[in-house]
Amino acid sequence: MGEIPVRKVSVRIASAAIAAALGAASPALAGESCQLDDGTTGAGTATGTGAVACGHNNSADGSNATAVGNNNNASASSATAVGLFNVSSQYGASAVGLANTASGAYAQAFGYYNTASGVTATALGIGNTASGEESTAIGMGTTASGMRSTAIGRGARAGADDSLAVGGWYDRNGNGWIEADEFTSVTGRYAAAFGAGAQATAAGATALGSANLATRDGASAVGFANTASGLYSQAFGNQNTASGTFSTALGMSNTASGTEATAVGMGNSASGARSTAIGRATVASADDSVAIGGWYDRDGDGSMGADEVTYATGTHSTALGAGARAQDSRALALGAGSRALVADSVALGTSSVADRANTVSVGASGAERQVVNVASGTQATDAVNLFQLSQVGSALGGSFAGGAFVAPQYVIQGSAYSDVASAFAAVDGRLTGLQAQIDTLQGAALFYSTPDRSRIDLQGTNGTRIGNLADGIQSTDAVNLGQMQAGDTQTLTSANGYTDQRAAETLANANGYTDQRAAETLASAHGYTDQRAAQTLQQANGYTDQRSAQTLQQANGYTDQRAAQTLQQATAYTDQRVANLTLAFDAFRGQIEDRFTQQDRRISRQGAMSSAMMQMSGNIAYAQPGRGRLAVGAGWQDGESALSVGYGRRLGTNVTLSIGAAFSSSEKSAGVGFGIDTP
């Protein structure tokens, strides 16, 4: 683009046209063009009602349009193009600076080579593009293409509705070249990215800090060079990665790749579903596993080895402590360097090893430990302490000293034995010898013929007569034949008398007892039968009444509970749906109200600026010859205020010059005027 020579402008503009150029509210008049020093209009045209074209090759075709400078085009009503090669083509649009384009209604493009094509869009700076409705692009090379999107900085892009991108370039691959994917970028609705190279590419995603990436719905990456690529994942700190759904990575260089996994600290990895890795370089690779710890220099070489960090590689396993390892399902390793190697094993304490399933280890081979403060066991599966074991030893004749069992001393026939087996062997030997002696005695003429020694027999099969036997005196003495014959007669007489007497007594007693017991038995049977029948009937009736009442109560309770739950769920669902519809309608109504409010404020600001410019220009008209006059004007309309500042000077007696500008919040306008008295 070549340079365009800018010629001095000396014009005569009617006061009504000046007011129109300054944005004042005045009756619609035919458009006018500035006259150049050479007496021409510089090919400038002002065809719109109340339009002004001032400068070289300017065009103001819309009503109340303004084109000031060189090669500017204001083709729509109330459009403004000021500077060089600016284009304003929609109602109320403004393009100010060099080569700017404002093609959206009420769009604003200020600076160099900016484009504002969306309705009420704003592009400010160098090479910015605001194409979305109500979008804003500020800085250099930024793009805001979504509705209500905002892009600020260097090369930032906000490509989705209601998105926000603030930042610039981050040399992600370190090659020193600016590449398209190294700028701050937002492509998800309601997403936001702050920082050089930050990117939020999914709905509701947030990337806060340089080089952060949030690529799934609801994901958040905060800090530096973090990546949150899982659905609703969170990555906070420095160079963390959260790729699992609902996963969290916090700290530095952590990775949470499992669903609902958590990695916190430095260099930790949680890859199992619902796994947790906390500390330094810990690994939780199985579902529902927990690894908390860090580095344990097992070999003492001062460098971290792969087998010297905390690992939980078994399902539902837990490793707590520096270098602890839980390698199988439900294993637990607690303590620095502890290892639980098989399923359901427990290793407690530093460097403890549990290598058998369903066991608890408090040490390792060659590095055993004592378990102290153990209560006495009371159940069959309880642990036994030394006190209880000492009692067992004492019962066997031994003892415990210094943690070791002291063997008992058993003395058998003068010989000492230190173990039960040897003592029983000695006893067995003695018994065997005694049995041999007994067998020898059984071969003699007189011997015991029963084990309990209640009978003595003599050898031989024809019988043996014992002679010269004295009369027996004690009740247990043997009797001879003379004593036996003398006693037979007396015994027979006594026996007959006693038998007759006892037989008569026994018969009488038996008859009486039988009659009595028969009567008692019959009465008891009748009473018991009546009692049990009544009890049975009463219990049956009570049980039936109780079960019927319980059944009715349970049925009523269940029915009431289910009915209440059904009503509660239906009510909650209805309330939620109504609330959602209300929120959606309120949001829509709020957006409509905001749009009308914004439009009303812009109109009020334009009116206030027109009033301020009129007051200022009226004061400049009183400038004295040879002196300049600085004037200030103020204006108000419907709660909006504006301020205008202008300078006027009479050059000689026939020429006047005036310059002015008006400001109201974000709205602004400027104008310049010349006047020449003619004969």
Automatic annotation (TrEMBL):
Keywords: Cell outer membrane, Membrane, Protein transport, Signal, Transmembrane, Transmembrane beta strand, Transport. Residues 46-71, 116-141, 144-167, 187-210, 228-252, 270-293, 312-338, 344-364 form the Trimeric autotransporter adhesin YadA-like head domain. Residues 622-676 form the Trimeric autotransporter adhesin YadA-like C-terminal membrane anchor domain. Gene3D superfamilies: 1.20.5.2280, 6.10.250.2030, GSPII I/J protein-like, Serralysin-like metalloprotease, C-terminal. It is found in: Cell outer membrane; Cell surface. The keyword Transmembrane applies. Pfam families: YadA_anchor, YadA_head, YadA_stalk. GO terms for biological process: protein transport. GO terms for cellular component: cell outer membrane; cell surface. It comes from the Bacteria. PROSITE patterns: EF_HAND_1. Residues 370-400, 465-504 form the Trimeric autotransporter adhesin YadA-like stalk domain. Its main location: membrane. Residues 1-30 form the signal peptide. InterPro entries: Adhesin_Head_dom, Coiled_stalk_dom, EF_Hand_1_Ca_BS, Pilin-like, Serralysin-like_metalloprot_C, YadA_C. Belongs to the autotransporter-2 (AT-2) (TC 1.B.40) family. This is Head domain of trimeric autotransporter adhesin. It comes from Vulcaniibacterium thermophilum. The lineage of its organism: Bacteria, Pseudomonadati, Pseudomonadota, Gammaproteobacteria, Lysobacterales.
